[in-house]
Amino acid sequence: MKIGDRIVYPMHGAGEIVDIEENEVGGVKNSYYILRLPVGDMKLMLPVDKVEEVGLRELITPAQISEVVEVLQAETEQLQGSWNKRFHTNLERLKSGDILEAAAVARNLTRQNNKKKVSSGEKKLLDLSRQILITELVYVCEKSPEEITEWIDKLIDIPELEELAT
Q1: Of 159, 140, 130, 3, residue with least CA distance to 58
Q2: Order of strands, edge to edge, in the sheet holding 43-47?
Q3: pLDDT tens digit string along 119-155?
Q4: CATH number attached to the domain at 62-165
């Protein structure tokens, strides 16, 4: 990997490598990739020797955007169990680093939150899933975070099939 590469860091989203720095943390010198995310001007430090371990991956291709759209427009999945069980299920989906899993979590929690506010823990997962989704799509679609956010909201806001029947 080199400066200028755009990659996906699971549980954070997509970013661009803007620098490679030597830093000392806890008395140990290490090389770090400095990632800049396109949302919130967030910068992350990723140890170069941990790249394989954290599951970095390349961005999806423009051809894969249609798969993301399908997931965002699909019916809401009703997860069973307590909010705690749903939280852990959604957390595992986000940890996978798969954009389709992040899209499903964003869709489900957005719709659930629109009907009845989700718990504070689930709200954090909702925000994180949207950040993961938005940061990657900003790069792949070459649009601003605001344009991507608006587009995602429109895709998720399609009325549920069961609501159309009533």
Answers
A1: 140
A2: 43-47, 28-36, 13-25, 6-9, 57-58
A3: 888 999 999 999 999 999 999 999 999 999 999 999 9
A4: 1.20.58.1290
Structure tokens at 12: 């954070």
Spatial separation of the C-alpha atoms in residues 16 and 7, rounded to whole Å? 6
Q: Is the dihedral of CA 119, 44, 156, 60 positive or negative?
A: negative
Nearest to 46 by CA among 21, 67, 71, 68: 21
16: β partners: 6, 36
The whole-model pTM stands at 0.85
CATH number of 6-57: 2.40.10.170
Each domain of the chain, given as residue ranges in start order, spans 6-57, 62-165
